[in-house]
Design a protein that fits this description.
The protein is of the alpha+beta class. The chain has three helices and three strands. The protein has a single domain, classed as Mth169, Chain: A (2-Layer Sandwich), CATH 3.30.1280.10. The chain is flat, with a radius of gyration of 16 Å.
């Protein structure tokens, strides 16, 4: 079974109150050095069989039409989750 990861973020010109709240909380909790936070959404789509180019194309179409609101959000990544497993510290 394969898995596709879709990341969606608010467009840069859209206000992000959740991101601002997190940015304000980080220094209070001892996490300094972060100047900005944007909060987005992550979707994990499981598929029967391997993740092929056709599966990725269908996931991109779903991301653009169903998983995101194109007026206020950008789809920033549609990738095979297996590619994340090769990155140390990344979670697929």
């Amino acid at each position: 079974m394969g898995r596709v990861v879709v990341d969606v973020m608010p467009k840069p010109e859209i206000l992000d109150p959740q991101g601002k709240a997190v940015a304000g909380a980080l220094p209070r909790l001892g996490f300094t050095g972060f100047t900005s936070v944007r909060q987005g959404k992550r979707f994990e789509l499981e598929v029967d069989g391997p993740v092929t180019d056709e599966v990725l194309a269908a996931a991109r179409e779903a991301a653009a039409t169903v998983l995101s609101n194109p007026v206020i959000e950008d789809v920033v990544a549609v990738i095979d989750a297996a590619s994340l497993e090769a990155v140390p510290g990344a979670q697929a």
